[in-house]
User: Fold these one by one.
Assistant:
Number 1:
Amino acid sequence: MSEKFGNWRTLGNPGPDIKSTRNRALAELDITIPVGRCWWAMTLAPLDVACPQCGSHDVLYSCKPECCFNHVCNNCYTTFELETARIGEAEGEFESPPEPDPTAPTAPCARCGEWRVFAIRDGDNSPSQFVCIDCRALLALSLTNVAPG
């Protein structure tokens, strides 16, 4: 017997607990669903930043986290820095991704200052939220100190 719960179809009697129903739907359908401002199961990806001047994604991190977060576009040589703002707390589950390439774009976490910030992927859409995997802060990313090359 099949019962319908919102737009999700679960098998058998879902019972009175909505959380267990949602968990069963996730387990049976192997999907993710939104919960508040984050995802139940998040897919993380390294930061991918476009140059604010030419739009190229060939951007290199040119310093060390102890100094600054200066980035350089390898196409037009525009320099800029990345910064974050805390917008919430990540409540979903995620596995810690491998350490990123030291020349890949990175940004400091607005809460703890660490540089282990990753994009939260939502299918084919570009990310609009980011997460620090050290303190689980949900972050927004912005560019500052843009100097055209």
Note: Confidence is low (pLDDT under 50) at residues 1-39.
Number 2:
Amino acid sequence: MEWVTPKENIQHAVKNNLIKPVKGEKHYKSKKIRQYTKDNKFVKEYFSITEASKQTKILRSAISMCLTKKNKTAGGFIWRYDYEK
């Protein structure tokens, strides 16, 4: 037996199929985001920045910078968290 960190313990459990990793909308840090046109018309809602990035081919970092108000748009769209409606 050896000492491991909690992170290493979880990684071991996932690697050995003892637990399934939580991803996407089920992850506790996942936040819904909304995509709008530049004239503020709703386009689509996504379960996470990663999902939006994969579907739109817009960089995750660009969407994130828009959500944190560092940029006004990303990929020609306005992005907001769901709770900012």
Note: The two ends are 51 Å apart (CA to CA).
Number 3:
Amino acid sequence: MPKEPRKRARKHRPEVVHDADDGEAAGAGPSWIVQSNEPQSTEEPLDPDLKAYFRSVDIKLQEWASEDSEQVILITDQLEDRHAFILAAISEIRGHEIELSEDPECSKIIEKIIRSLDDALLRSFFSNLLKHLPTLIKHRFGSHVCQTLLTSSAATLNREMQGITSGTSGEHQDSTTPSMKALILQVSESLLGDSLPLMSDASASPVIRTLLALLSTQSWIDILPQKRDSTGHPHTGKNRKPTHDRYQQRGIVTGKPLAAINANTPVPPEFILTAKRYLEHICSEATAEAMRDAVYDEVTSPALQVLVKLEAQQSSSNQSESLLDFILPGVVSGEKDVINEHSDHLDQIFRHPVGSHFIEAVVANASEQVFRQLWNRLIRRNMASLINDPVANFVIASAFGKVNEKGLEDVMPLPSTVWSECVESGRTGVIQALIRRSAELHSHEAEVVDIVCSAFGVQKDDDRRLIVPCVTTLTTIKTYREPPSTTPNMYGPRHGGKSRPRTKEPSIQGALVLQSLLRLDAPHSSIVLRSIEALTQEETLALAQSPVNSRILDVLLESPTVPYRSKRALVMTFIGCYQTLVDDRIGSFVGEKLWQAADPYLREKIANSLVEHEDALVASRYGKYFIKNANMWLLKKDPIKWRKKQAEKGHQNHSTKEGSTSQPQTKDGSASMAEPAKDTEEKREKRKREEQAADEIDGIFSTVKKKGKRPLV
């Protein structure tokens, strides 16, 4: 007989009695839901209708942002509608600031509204939210609103300090509204007493850091908000439109670009005094032991880094009982007994994943006197072990960027095993920093080249010809000559006990080392140039088509320390394979740089080598741009005119390079004064050519006799 279909559940299920006081179920493990430790808000729940209204506001703001990104020209009625819409949204926020800012969804919408306000509306909104800031700063979502408000106020404050007042007229343009400077000072006064516990609060610490950065900044670039897209995320990427520039803002309400940000605008003197009060209050309230423990805390340590920068700006780091003296005891005062007493702490702070960031901030902002004390009393004595530490090597790389010639002398006696271990572990940031600093000081360049050669085991002259393939793959000469299958894994056995054969793939770290070597002075950078010249044409072509190694050739062609003879030799190397080079995504960029570096004679040789491949390159996705730039059609039609044109281009490129080196650009754009004159000369020559062409045409037609009407018979 056929079976009856099984039912989806039993008829009589036992009822489960839920106990309100039950804890975790037996064997169920801990719950993944993190219980909030914040006190429950005493405000009433958010009205669903109000929440739905702000969802519609979010949609409208996204539409406006997309219109602004497309540079849509708005008419007056549209601007008035925007203005009225924003005013209505701000009116709905009034009285519900805490509920909206503490809501996970509405808090993001409030942040978008803050970024869309002009200066007048932002001051008014800041004034209304001022009394709620001490409460919101401790909330998980409200703290984000406070931080966005402070960050957006930086641009308004900058324009205010320039004497530029921009805003809209209406009920929110009130003469009684305080200035942005006064509002920030009021916030600073209200948070000064609780600044120490707020620094250790996970929600409030970022807001305190933003406030301290705003009070103590010497450059507005560090505090200005980034341009965001329609979704509220900051724009990322190398090629960004001018409208996405970090220092440009466009008012959504007005539809016009706001006044430009001047990075040279001085900070108000009241801000400097307030920042000093914060520093004195924190140093007086906290004990030295508590500060040393806070360096290792993920929440408090970033705030201490801002305070260290503030202390360095006020030139008080080298004083006793300063913040730096509390955290690094004995280093500033020079007491050896105190240093020995806290030797464990001073050694651990370099190797700790959180504490190392504090030391890096100290090194970056320290004055010359303080850095010399750090170098002599902490870094120099443990340099050999710190260079190859997984964490401390970043601090040493930062320190190498500030050493003087005497500091470089302290680095030279280190054993070669220290540098070879850097290559084996893949941590070459220290070597890169050492090469860059040697090139900047023009000192100890020969010793630095010897250090690189010893690190890769290429001390012999014959082996030095292989320095490029060795450095690009981060392998020693012995390992490079071994077959890949027998090369052991330098990082140890893989999981399961099986070792992975090391592949000879190009590495970014190795390419950066070679780029730094090419920036050394001419006699010392020749080690890389000779190694590139020793490569075969196929190997050089593979180097140019690599996304990583092609940067080496870019620096070779652009570096002023590389002699022209080496650049010419590199251009000659690719003759015969330019059709393969430019028909590649990466190689096409290298081909353009080779064309720019070539003289007219070499350009003609390159162009003649591509005549038989012209049709294939014109149809190529990448090669068509090179053919267009080379002007192959003119070369075949009139070679003399082509040579003359290339000679003029070469002269212009040479004069441009000389102008860029002799007259560097200034911040106010004074170095670009030669551009209008150049444009005027080009227009004048173009007008002269047009007049000559018109005269020739008139002359031709003037020789032709006009035919009269035939006589009537």
Note: DSSP finds 40 helices and no strands in the chain.
